[in-house]
Amino acid sequence: MVRPSGLLTRQEEPVPLKSICVTLSIREFVAGVAATLNYENEEKFPLETFFVFPMDEDSAVYSFEAMVDGKTIKAELKDKKKAHIIYESAISHRHQAFLLEEDKCSRDVFCCNVGNLQPGSKVALTLKYVQELPLEADGALRYVLPAVLNPRYRCSGSPEDSCLDLKTPIVPLDDLPYSFSMTATVSSQHGIETIQSNCPLSPIEYLGDKKTSAQISLADGHKFDRDVELLIYYREVHTPSVAVELGNPKNNPDGLMKDPSAMVCFYPNIPEVEPSAICGEFVFLMDCSGSMQCPISKQDKSQLRIEAAKETLILLLKSLPVNCYFNIYAFGSSFEAFFPNSVKYTQDTMEEALRRVKLMRADLGGTEILTPLQVIYREPSIPGHPLQLFVFTDGEVTDTFSIIKEVRNHRLRHRCFSFGIGEGASTSLIKGIARVGGGTSEFITGKDRMQAKALRALKHALQPAVEDVSVNWDLPRGLSAKTLSPEQTVLYKGQRLIVYAQLTGTMPPEEETGEVCLNYTLQGKSCENKVTFSLQPKLDDNFTIHRLAAKAFLQSMDIGFGETPAKTKKDVLKVSIDCGVISSHTAFIAINKDVNKPVQGPLVCRDIPRPVLLGAAAQMPQCKRVVFGETYLVQLISLQNADGSWDLDEDLARILGISLKDLWSALPVKDADSSSWATVLAVVWLHAKAKHQKCEWELLEKKARTWINSNAGSIKKKLVKAAIAFTKSSVDPAVFGI
């Protein structure tokens, strides 16, 4: 990062950044974005401005250009160190210069420098990127344009020249001095079901008989005061596909851009199987830093992050399989382990963990994840119980690459599932540790419930391992495929798998087709998914598939500035520069060489204010504490025993809304085990009163039904029918297997 010197913007000074305009084009599950930053110098002296902003870490930034006085100056992508030298030389010689780079600490933070902005001049800077859109559990494609970049906790050993070190003016979300607008086009050959957003939209205009296209824009007056999120529901999203894109041999005689590239999208039809007898060791690493005291989102009555985290831990504890091992670590500037080592899951250990979870507070200072991670990895493995690590954090750290590297170094002995809590969570950290740790990543914002997303990850963790994963191509003679994506070792039911490949050799006539096959084994059984596709490549002026393929390669090989080995760095630089996709080792640089004379006058620095959520930093007022009482669902779940049963007592009676005396009187079989009756009643209550939250309790309910089958024996049918009649519910007895 080029270090600023000079004054910082104060509120009474003009801010050179006047507006941000975003144009978004979403085709199927790929987004193409052009973001234009409009600058104007209203002061009487030349300026150097610095704008630090967040980007999703999956974004492949491939273009950066400046429009100055009607002329376009296209930036070149160069080795980052060389780009800095060129920029500093231009500034010292009073020439106009523009620099765009990733932060040294994290892939999801960028800095844009504008040097020697002349008095009265206007400049429009446009950066372009493409991005795969993640698929949510309900079938929605999720696009997020990040706005919030919260201050990130600096750990010892972090790089000293991070963009995040800029003393950028921090303002409340509602007081940003620049305007924001976004327009979007969404298209799918399968038709659009609906589009939702966390921000007010102008009326959506659908086009085509089957609603194959839609035009969207943010409502007038929108302030860039929150992450902009779109949830796009197509009529069909689980259709496997292959797209082949023409290369650019004229401008790229060698390298990745020369040949056609293919993008393969699989939706593996992984069959339902019974969980493996191997239980696992489940370790939960929970952020208890001060920023966890903030609400998850700006929305009214949004739950505090720490309260949602505590509820989630209770659900996870109750959903763990019998005979597994577990531990919980709370971390901030320091960390606390609930137990010295992972312990066997019993009634006593579960109750002790539950007691400590209820006492958790967001009072452990900063966010230091690396040290507790290292402690967890130093613990000896438990034979027959593979490690499953769950990391919950609002992701406000600066040592992102060190953390990812630590998880990557231990990838063969565990799986890592990560959760980004609240707006501003680092996508680089959350996605990065899940990617290298063979798990899944989730983000909890807006009205999302952390509980549901955490339980979905636990289901993935309990799945039997999908092994021997391979992708095989059947192509005409003279044509071959070289896979560019990192080797896939983990597959989960309901997830999409995207594979990129470079096609080399002689392309056949139009009528020829190819076939690509995904092979894997599950519990000793061989499975395959095949897709047949046309080998006629299509032209795309933006080379979208090539850029995405380059990004996939860079994500797997580029492990951060200062972390990537020298040999690998050479390959990273070549792919990055050849394909024009920025990496941690490259930067975009543009010099306006047409200015007739050097800029006159002393250069003054101006840093662009950036938004943070209120209370996210010490500079801002503390979050107002809002405590939400435990719901009846959480209370009921808290009463469940480790083996899946419930006790017939006053606490259960209070939640059911029936006196304990009446519950005993209604016991349909004299001398029957009261726990069997209590457990059946609890399961009936879950289905009758909390059906809409089934995704949060289905694992612990399954454990309860297993217990009923083992303990109620021949009277199970009587207990179930009596419970349904007594509670006057319409629950189908079939849920109990009757």
TrEMBL record:
Cited SUPFAM superfamilies: vWA-like
Record-linked Pfam families: VIT (PF08487), VWA_3 (PF13768)
Organism superkingdom: Eukaryota
All residue ranges annotated as the VIT domain in the record: 1-131
CDD domains: vWA_interalpha_trypsin_inhibitor
Domain VWFA per the UniProt entry, residue ranges: 281-462
Transmembrane feature ranges: none
PROSITE patterns, sorted: VIT, VWFA
InterPro entries assigned: VIT, VWF_A, vWFA_dom_sf
The name this protein goes by in its record: von Willebrand factor A domain-containing protein 5A
Organism of origin: Panthera pardus
Gene: VWA5A
